[in-house]
Amino acid sequence: MRVDVAVVDGVLATGVSSVVDVFSTAESVRGARRSHAPPITVTCVGSGQSVVASNGMTIPCTAGWDGLSSADVVVVPGFGIEREHEVAPFLRRPDVLELVDALGALGSSEVNIAAACAGSFLAAEAGLLEHRRATTTWWLSRLFRVRYPRVDLAIDEMVVRDGPVLTAGAAFGHVDLALAIVASISAELATTVGRYLAVDQRTRQGDFIELAHLTAGDSLVAAFDRLVVQSLARSPGVNDLAGELGTTRRTLERRVQAATGLTPLGLIRRRRAGRARDLLAETEWSTSRVAAEVGYRNASTLRRLLRVHG
After folding, report:
1. Residue 295, by phi and psi: left (phi above 0), alpha (psi -120 to 50) or beta?
2. 104, exposed or middle or buried, with CB in 10 Å at 0-12, 13-18, 19+?
3. Distance CA 300, CA 214 (A)
4. How far apart are CA 293 and CA 88, in angstroms?
5. For 4-42, how does the pLDDT look when each residue is reduced to its tens digit (9 = 90+)?
């Protein structure tokens, strides 16, 4: 299996190194164990002889975009983008536009595309995620929904596969992405690589999402989130909360969904789970007492919630 990692200036160094390390380890383990999985080669490709990563490291490139169609998998790592306003200028850069065009040309080929973190924006710009399920880095999810409304964004998931396209969540989601690619040729090999690197194949990104960041861009949603946190114990309904905020349930549902990808009830449950986990870790309270503190009448309901939300 030939894996090409497509890089431009500003690429996330840890994204590149973690992907390369997973595949290099997989090839080493494959050879040592005489696995029936195909040989794995991984190289970095770009428009020049090297690129400068977001942390200043220089990453050498062994080939250009013309060879991407010969790869089995093209991986697009994330980039050093921290805020929404940085995305548009990045996507307008000539070298990024070249990569987007090269990715778009692969749409009718048999090459599999894998993108992690902000790299999912490049796959979306290339039209590869149209009418597909995908994920991206959680703190850019609000902007992603606005720019690409025809993408079914599954922000809670760590890795999403839809046809020939694989996407992964934030930063160290690159490890999960690479392990998922290895698992596509040998589940046993992926498990062994995970043991050697002491990493698990995580299924959820949702547990890492900071809701306050997602709600901050909409004053109504931010107020709703604050009210939810303040009123967990009394457990008001969505209609009651909407009334306290002077809005309608329909407006609240629309605004919360746009900002966070959650329903108002989904946000409430996420807040309950987070508060419950904190109380269980920081106090000696019984599960029943914690349940009451977050608005549930019994411990069994809380346990069901925590099974869903980690």
Report:
1. left
2. middle
3. 30
4. 43
5. 999 999 999 999 999 999 999 999 999 888 878 899 999
